[in-house]
Amino acid sequence: MKKTIILVLTLALLSIAILPITSAQSDSYTIAFVPGVNPDPFYITMSRGVNQAASDMGVEVIQQDPEQFNVQFSVPIIEALIARGDIDALVTAPNDKEQSIPVLQKANDAGIPVITVDTFIGDGDYAAGPVTFPLSYVGSDNVEGGRIACNALADALGEGAKIYIQNVRPGISTTDQREQGCVEAAAARGLEVVRVDYNENDANTAQQQTAAVLQANPDITGMFATNTFGALGAGAAIQNAGLAGAVQVALFDASEENIGYLRDGTVSIVIAQKPADMGYLGVVMQMANVRGYTSVPKRLPTGYFVFTSENVDDPNNAKFIYTG
Ligand code: T6T
After folding, report:
1. pTM for this structure?
2. DSSP assignment string, 131-196
3. What is the pLDDT of residue 20?
């Protein structure tokens, strides 16, 4: 996989040097970036990668942020970007596997190539799945991420333990797949998933739900929170209930707050994605495509770094913590 990334980067960067592109063409190339929601440390970090690539490649980026992780907010933004008539390519994290399809199809039909970063539409298989028009899907393997989380819980708790999942909302490709991976790992390792709650990306809701579930089910000894906001709420609930250490907790997303929960012993592992790389590679691959390369891969997994109490203070790993 590293080889693919290096090849794409090398081809795209080489193209700047060797293709006869006028400064007018390069000046006028504009990429729209629409993250899943902001503010969110994950997408703030992704934005850093997008802007770094744009600066490295001399293209303009227009970023527009949905206020909530919801198609009601992202669809009008994308509609307006299409209507401008001056957008050459779109890099975006769709809010819903199905509901985001029509507006992205419309962008593609208007001649704006689409790369999805972090999340996907359809089933994410843009080569042979039900939705094939996007150029590429750049993001984590989220089934694998859910498995990493719940295998860690199984390692710590052993067979027969009861666990709880804090998730966002059905329909979001990433968090659906994390839940799936966790449930699969739990079944394989003999853990019982007692309950799944959905917090709508609201840390306060996640905190209240977690507190209520742990109080009503004192035999739950492990939990998995599938993204930044669920993790933030789960960590607070565990702290307030004085359950640090008694309940093993696996969190997704390496925000400063979540790393703080790991440092103070509230949680056991934090799974970091590579949002800056997703953003950087999304822009690079759009540029490779516009410059005529046919080797842009339909799928580019970006990998993880798993933080534990043993490696969290190693300065070499600080780069995996999200930008605040
Ligand atoms: O976990 C990330 C992202 O991967 C997911 O699609 C939505 O939530 C986050 O942005 C974290 O808040």
Report:
1. 0.93
2. ---SSEEEE--HHHHHHHHHHHHHHHH-TT-EEEEEE--TT-HHHHHHHHHHHHHHHHHT-EEEEE
3. 36
